[in-house]
């Protein structure tokens, strides 16, 4: 096996965020804190740029381990993050659980060392919760004080009970004290004083002003006018079901109307009191009072910093979340429905009218070539400055002559036989009862493609020719190129059809919403990495057509003409190395080891900067899946290869670079599929069509097949 280059998979680059969606303005904040890279923030988290006062609630499962001992690593990470925020000007308030757990562990240890041998035979380790809280509170605060002191941060302890808040003057006194501490850059540490609480367990007595540290944190967030409440738990956020259930999905933005009745809660933590259900209630309560809340993992070492960078981690509770969800869903659905409606108008046109649209697109591309090239050059320059790989930049570059070639390809597609309503079969079922099978459009296509802006033109052309509506999502690196190409193409679509026939999706956020529209979108075609294809298949009910591997092989058989082999191998690798149909692996028959012809070939490859690292000589090739070629003069070996290698395209004595819709005479392609349903290989117009059955009768009824004489006679196509 002679590997002549890395696999040329084409990953979908990350997308730019949307901005300004339902921002909750804080009280000023400090714009550049935490190296706040807002350009990578999720649009729903854009409000964090205005956050200044933060309450961080730490759950018992974060503070302690399963054995009840303090989790010093997690506490250290927490204190490090708080110190960083404190030094950057944030006002940080901690609400910490864990006193009961720490106290129980200490009491267990004390009882153990003072137990007799008889006591050890029947240990009794049940302790009163209030006693545990009284013992553990001082120890927990001592640990915090020690850790913060090492970081040159001062902390303070404030113990409160439910009864305190029943005093009308307590709130004013609390705010005065806390604000004074914050002005001095001291970290207030709150905890419910369980040692003297008069209430029963919170799940038995949900009455009162607050009933656990989760609800205390929510109460303090409102009382102290916080800009953000972060609740750290032992899971990454709120899931649609128990986190241990593989079918459960994390909910990044909680909307009570959408998720309230759908979520099922699993077992709560063994060391905590309230569990996730208590956190959800507290978070929803705080959000309803105008304080955004994020439930995130306290096990990660940088969760707090990521939240404040606006990254999409954990579960966000926001009082405007329902508006975001309605707006996003409406935008995605409206775009898909509009494409579907326009496609139906397109299908009503005559063949000549649809052909004219394509010819007008070809003309418009040539007329606007300078503007298109200018935008593409701006994309290329930005990609180079950003340090993108050369292969990606090569794919996104519209070289001289590319627009002319695209226009020529469009005109070729326009001149093809009209595929819509093309009859494939006619059968006389019975006298005056005729069955027909004909092509028809799939409906609405969602294409997610990589850096190549020319793919937008090809896909749009094929969609129009096949009568389909189209939604396009390209990579951010070709944003300007995609935008102007979309504008040029839709600019010539007649009003009788509608400009919304082809929609351009500009935000990564909208992809998830579109993938949920299985009642409107009929096929998804992702053009990118294996991970992208697999991820989309796992997150949508819409049929997905996409290649999951892009490895192309050339196999030199023992009877190969080595001059021919040299030409094919060099072309397959060197003609356009960034293409998905470029050769990546060369397989050589074992009998050619150290042959003069092979040595010459290796020299030529080395001249192209492709040096070999290892060679394995094989006698046959196994399943590959994309495009594979055999070079041989042995017709029997060639036929065995063509019949037995299970790939989307198999060649004999021809470069893998021929695996292309245009070169195959398809006019263009939306991609190369390595699947089996419903298209395989380069997907042209026919891959964007399905069939429907038409029956033309004269009043016939089945009636138990009485009196029906079936003829099933083939009829000529009309």
TrEMBL record:
It holds the Pfam family AA_kinase. GO terms for molecular function: ATP binding; glutamate 5-kinase activity; glutamate-5-semialdehyde dehydrogenase activity. The keyword ATP-binding applies. Residues 1-26 are annotated as: Disordered. Residues 7-26 have a biased composition (Basic and acidic residues). It catalyses: L-glutamate 5-semialdehyde + phosphate + NADP(+) = L-glutamyl 5-phosphate + NADPH + H(+); L-glutamate + ATP = L-glutamyl 5-phosphate + ADP. GO terms for biological process: L-proline biosynthetic process. Residues 327-592 form the Aldehyde dehydrogenase domain. Pathway: Amino-acid biosynthesis; L-proline biosynthesis; L-glutamate 5-semialdehyde from L-glutamate: step 2/2; Amino-acid biosynthesis; L-proline biosynthesis; L-glutamate 5-semialdehyde from L-glutamate: step 1/2. Residues 52-297 form the Aspartate/glutamate/uridylate kinase domain. Keywords: Amino-acid biosynthesis, ATP-binding, Kinase, Multifunctional enzyme, NADP, Nucleotide-binding, Oxidoreductase, Proline biosynthesis, Transferase. SUPFAM superfamilies: ALDH-like (SSF53720), Carbamate kinase-like (SSF53633). It comes from the Eukaryota. One of its GO terms (cellular component) is cytoplasm. In the N-terminal section; belongs to the glutamate 5-kinase family. PANTHER family: DELTA-1-PYRROLINE-5-CARBOXYLATE SYNTHASE 2, GLUTAMATE SEMIALDEHYDE DEHYDROGENASE. This is Delta-1-pyrroline-5-carboxylate synthase.
């Amino acid at each position: 096996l002679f590997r002549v280059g890395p696999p040329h998979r084409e990953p979908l680059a990350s997308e730019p965020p949307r901005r300004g969606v339902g921002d909750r303005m804080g009280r000023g904040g400090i714009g550049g804190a935490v190296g706040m890279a807002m350009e990578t923030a999720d649009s729903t988290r854009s409000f964090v740029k205005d956050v200044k006062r933060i309450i961080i609630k730490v759950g018992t499962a974060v503070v302690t381990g399963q054995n009840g001992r303090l989790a010093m690593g997690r506490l250290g990470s927490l204190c490090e993050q708080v110190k960083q925020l404190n030094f950057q000007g944030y006002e940080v308030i901690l609400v910490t659980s864990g006193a009961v757990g720490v106290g129980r562990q200490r009491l267990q240890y004390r009882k153990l060392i003072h137990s007799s041998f008889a006591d050890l035979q029947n240990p009794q380790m049940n302790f009163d919760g209030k006693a545990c809280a009284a013992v553990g509170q001082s120890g927990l605060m001592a640990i915090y004080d020690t850790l913060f002191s090492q970081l040159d941060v001062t902390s303070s302890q404030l113990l409160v009970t439910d009864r305190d808040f029943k005093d009308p003057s307590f709130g004013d006194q609390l705010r005065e004290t806390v604000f004074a501490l914050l002005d001095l850059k001291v970290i207030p540490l709150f905890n419910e004083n369980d040692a003297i609480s008069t209430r029963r367990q919170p799940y038995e007595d949900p009455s009162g002003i607050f009933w656990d540290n989760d609800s205390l944190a929510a109460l303090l967030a409102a009382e102290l006018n916080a800009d953000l409440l972060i609740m750290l738990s032992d899971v990454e956020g709120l899931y649609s079901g128990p986190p241990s259930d593989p079918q459960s999905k994390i909910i990044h933005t909680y909307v009570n109307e959408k998720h309230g009745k759908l979520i099922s809660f699993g077992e709560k933590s063994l060391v905590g009191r309230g569990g996730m259900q208590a956190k959800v209630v507290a978070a929803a309560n705080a959000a309803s009072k105008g304080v955004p809340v994020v439930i995130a993992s306290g096990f990660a070492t940088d969760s707090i910093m990521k939240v404040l960078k606006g990254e999409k981690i954990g579960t966000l509770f926001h009082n405007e979340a329902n508006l975001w969800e309605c707006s996003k869903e409406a935008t995605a659905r409206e775009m898909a429905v509009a494409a579907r409606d326009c496609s139906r108008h397109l299908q009503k046109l005559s063949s000549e009218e649809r052909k004219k649209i394509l010819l007008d697109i070809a003309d418009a591309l040539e007329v606007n070539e300078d503007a298109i090239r200018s935008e593409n050059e701006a994309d290329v320059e930005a990609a180079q400055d950003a340090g993108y790989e050369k292969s990606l930049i090569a794919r996104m570059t519209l070289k001289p002559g590319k627009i002319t070639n695209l226009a020529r390809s469009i005109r070729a597609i326009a001149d093809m036989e009209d595929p819509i309503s093309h009859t494939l079969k006619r059968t006389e079922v019975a006298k005056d009862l005729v069955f027909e099978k004909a092509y028809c459009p799939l409906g609405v296509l969602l294409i997610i493609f990589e850096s190549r802006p020319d793919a937008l033109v090809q896909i749009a052309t094929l969609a129009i020719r096949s009568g389909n509506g189209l939604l396009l999502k390209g990579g951010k690196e070709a944003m300007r190129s995609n935008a102007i190409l979309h504008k040029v193409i839709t600019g010539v679509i007649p009003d009788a059809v509608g400009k919304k026939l082809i929609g351009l999706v500009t935000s990564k956020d909208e992809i998830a919403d579109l993938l949920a529209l299985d009642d409107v979108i009929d096929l998804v075609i992702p053009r990118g990495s294996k991970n992208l294809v697999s991820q989309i298949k796992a997150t949508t009910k819409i049929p997905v057509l996409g290649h999951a591997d892009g490895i192309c092989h050339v196999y030199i058989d023992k009877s190969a003409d080595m001059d021919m082999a040299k030409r094919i191998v060099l072309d397959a690798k060197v003609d356009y190395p960034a293409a998905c149909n470029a050769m990546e692996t060369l397989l050589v028959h074992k009998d050619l080891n150290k042959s003069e012809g092979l040595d010459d070939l290796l020299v030529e490859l080395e001249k192209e900067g492709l040096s070999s690292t290892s060679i394995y000589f094989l006698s046959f090739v196994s399943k590959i899946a994309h495009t594979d070629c055999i070079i041989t003069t042995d017709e029997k070996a060639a036929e065995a290869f063509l019949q037995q290698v299970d790939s989307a395209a198999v060649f004999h004595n021809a470069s893998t670079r021929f695996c292309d819709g245009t070169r195959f005479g398809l006019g263009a392609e939306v991609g190369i599929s390595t699947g089996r349903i419903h298209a395989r290989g380069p997907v042209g117009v026919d891959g964007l069509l399905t069939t429907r059955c038409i029956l033309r009768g004269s009043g016939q009824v089945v009636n138990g097949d009485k009196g029906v004489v079936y003829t099933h006679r083939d009829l000529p196509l009309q």
